[in-house]
From TrEMBL:
Organism name: Colobus angolensis palliatus
Protein purpose: DNA-binding transcription regulator that regulates endothelial cell proliferation and G1/S cell-cycle progression. Specifically binds the 5'-[AT]NTNN[GT]GGCA[AGT]-3' core DNA sequence and acts by modulating expression of pRB-E2F cell-cycle target genes.
Domain of life: Eukaryota
Key word Transmembrane helix present: no
UniProt GO molecular function: DNA-binding transcription factor activity; sequence-specific DNA binding; zinc ion binding
Record protein name field: THAP domain-containing protein 1
């Protein structure tokens, strides 16, 4: 099964062609604080519960949502720098007050 970028409105899929075009795909961090920063940045709402969306274990974001300065290069391979947070073309609809407690959701799962 092909995975898709979890950012709202992004249709990028993790395919051979996408990777040949230079896109990379990144799983949500396991570190609770860093993960909550990503969740806040993605700013997505669960359609059923109407609460903040919590990514599942296979959730990914494509490299389109990160600054070039967020990456380290190792030859032809590149990796996100520690502490990088997605910041480009992310859907903005929630207010900060709605997302400030997302760390509680992250630690509960």
């Amino acid at each position: 099964m092909t995975r898709s970028c979890s950012a709202v409105g992004c249709s990028t899929r993790d395919t051979v062609l996408s990777r040949e075009r230079g896109l990379s795909f990144h799983q949500f961090p396991t570190d609770t604080i860093q993960r909550s920063k990503w969740i806040r940045a993605v700013n997505r709402v669960d359609p059923r519960s109407k609460k903040i969306w919590i990514p599942g274990p296979g959730a990914i974001l494509c490299s389109k949502h990160f600054q070039e300065s967020d990456f380290e290069s190792y030859g032809i391979r590149r990796k996100l720098k520690k502490g990088a947070v997605p910041s480009i073309s992310l859907y903005k609809v929630l207010k900060y007050e709605d997302t400030r407690d997302c760390r509680a959701y992250v630690t509960a799962n």
